Amino acid sequence: MPRNAEVIRQWTILREIERARTGVTIDDLASLCGVTTRTIRRDLQALEEAGFPLFDDRSQDDARTRWRINGQAFKGLAAGLTLAELCALYFSRTLLESLSGTPFREEVESAFDKLESALTPHMRQFLDQLPRVIAAKPGPARAGAAGTADAARQPPIVARALEATLHLRQATMTYYSKSSERTKTYLVHPYRLAYAQGGLYLLAYVPEYGEVRTFAIERIQELSLLDDRFTPIEELPDTAFPHSLGVHSGPPVRVAIEFQPAVADYVRARQWHGSQTVTDAPAGGVTVTLDVCIDRALTSWILSFGPFARVVSPAGLSHEIARQIEEARARYL
Q1: Class of domain 154-229 (CATH, top level)
Q2: CA distance 187 to 24
Q3: Is the distance from CB of 246 to CB of 267 less than 8 angstroms?
């Protein structure tokens, strides 16, 4: 039997025992896991040897022996987390670390160091096997470029941005714009920090433009807080960049894309955007409809399918994709 299956089964047993207020019998666990009671007994022994505070109990009202977990052993642990919650955080740390923006990585690692200290060495040894089952590939980290803030300046900039958003303080910001290839100073009302696609972004209202704009943290050269406060005049959605497949705050447009049968199953099996609808197309293909803004993330996603995707609408997007394909083709001639 694969080692992963054994570890996952033991984790299932641990969670089931903790969830059951009156305890769980070995027969119940065997039925749940689809194994023999002998296997369950071996699993319980392994969990006990790993240091998990399990014990068997037989009440006067029930002759059957039930397995429980000693909750007092972890009372007050990690701000009231249950043992199962604590363990789940520990073994899923690779997922959380892959989502942490570079400025916060040190704090995330420090938090997990404290989390580890609440577990015995044998518990950690047992749980260390679980990340082999759940792995994460971090997104590409942002590298420095001409006109961007150096790595040493980023943490203070992030700290000031957080201060501004929490206390509604206006700020002046010197920013290098990649699109215009120039540096400019803005008065901004910082609304929120958002992490996406390996980068950290500041969403701020710019009075000069009368709208909320998105600024990449690594391109902020200086951020100074003012004594003046601001009152937010625009409510941001709970989700960062809700209308984009990437990092963009434009208005949504109805987009329809037809995919060939060769990629239909792959496309159908994934949630590309919360607005998507998928319908069958002729000859086994699929048509995906999205309400998204037209930006580089959308065009790159469409182009990644090569000849297996065709934009049905809007016409402007269809022409832009065709133009980029033709331009790419010309570079190979």
Answers
A1: mainly beta
A2: 62
A3: no
